């Protein structure tokens, strides 16, 4: 049992610290995952960004996922759940459009405070506050793979044990602190599991972006702005 997302992420960071990471960046799935990601990024001295994937809700059961969609528009479906709930093609198309609209809204919201980070050749840590059906995480994994990271690590505090094989097959390393057989929902393993609002998630991303700009530890130098460069050139003339 975790006290809250911060407690869970602090414990999770201890499992990641011994790893040899190359230009690490933490990618969080909003919104709850951003709280987890912010702690990991701080503890690992890494950048923080978001990856936008959304679950496709089951008809009449919005808390149940029949699949997920990533910001690249790619859809992952749990065909067994879809068939059992008789989700029609018309319903799926309506839900797809709705979730793409929400992804676009969130992209605008987060990109106003933090441009999309480059991922190629880097150690990418993909995180959320937990994994239930795994659909959203799988969609996010497909999105990140397209950016060709050096390695892709999934790190979560808790997950449904029957979903871990599918996740493990799509990443280089999977770190999960708890995978209990009596898993019912992510929130049951937190004493405090309050909803995370947009404003908090954006604030955490912005604060980490400011803390790592410029990142003198990685580059060894501060990159001057173009205006500063021009001023120096004029003085030399």
Quick recap:
This protein is of the alpha/beta class and about 240 residues long. It is built from nine helices and eight strands. Helix 2 (about 30-45) links the parallel strand 1 (about 25-30) and strand 2 (about 45-50).
Question: How would you summarize the topology of this molecule?
Answer:
Elements: H1 5-16, E1 25-28, H2 32-44, E2 47-50, E3 53-58, E4 61-70, E5 75-77, H3 79-85, H4 89-111, E6 123-127, H5 135-145, E7 151-158, H6 164-168, E8 173-178, H7 198-211, H8 216-219, H9 226-236
Parallel strand pairs: 1-2, 1-6, 6-7, 7-8
Antiparallel strand pairs: 3-4, 4-5
Provide the CATH architecture.
3-Layer(aba) Sandwich
Q: Beta-strand percentage? A: 15-25%
Q: Using DSSP, what is the number of strands?
A: 8
**Main structural class:** alpha/beta
Helix fraction bin: 40-55%
Mean pLDDT: 87
Number of domains: 1
Instruction: Quickly name the level 1 CATH class.
Output: Alpha Beta
Gyration radius, in Å: 19 Å
State the strand order across the main sheet: 2-1-6-7-8
Largest sheet: 5 strands, parallel
Distance between the termini: 65 Å
Order of helices and strands: HEHEEEEHHEHEHEHHH
Q: What shape does the CA trace take?
A: globular
Question: How is the CATH topology named?
Answer: Rossmann fold
Total helices: the number is 9
Q: Low-confidence stretches at least 5 residues in length (pLDDT < 50)?
A: 215-237
């Amino acid at each position: 049992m975790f006290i809250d997302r911060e407690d869970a992420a602090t414990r999770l960071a201890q499992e990641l610290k011994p790893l040899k990471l190359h230009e690490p960046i933490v990618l969080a799935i909003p919104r709850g995952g951003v709280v987890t990601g912010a702690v990991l990024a701080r503890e690992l001295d890494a950048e923080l960004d978001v990856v936008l994937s959304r679950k496709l809700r089951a008809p009449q059961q919005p808390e149940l996922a029949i699949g997920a969609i990533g910001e690249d528009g790619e859809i992952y479906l749990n065909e067994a759940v879809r068939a059992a709930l008789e989700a029609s093609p018309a319903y799926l198309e309506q839900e797809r459009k709705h979730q793409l609209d929400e992804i676009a809204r969130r992209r605008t919201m987060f990109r106003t405070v933090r441009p999309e980070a480059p991922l190629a050749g880097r150690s990418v840590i993909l995180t959320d506050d937990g994994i239930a059906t795994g659909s959203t995480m799988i969609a996010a994994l497909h999105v990140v793979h397209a950016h060709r990271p050096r390695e892709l690590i999934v790190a979560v505090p808790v997950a449904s044990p029957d979903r871990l094989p599918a996740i493990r097959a799509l990443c280089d390393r999977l770190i999960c602190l708890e995978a209990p057989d009596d898993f019912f929902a992510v929130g049951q393993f937190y004493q405090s599991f309050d909803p995370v609002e947009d404003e908090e998630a954006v604030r955490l991303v912005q604060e980490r972006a400011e803390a790592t700009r410029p990142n003198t530890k990685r580059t060894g130098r501060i990159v001057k702005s173009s205006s500063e460069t021009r001023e120096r050139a004029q003085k030399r003339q």
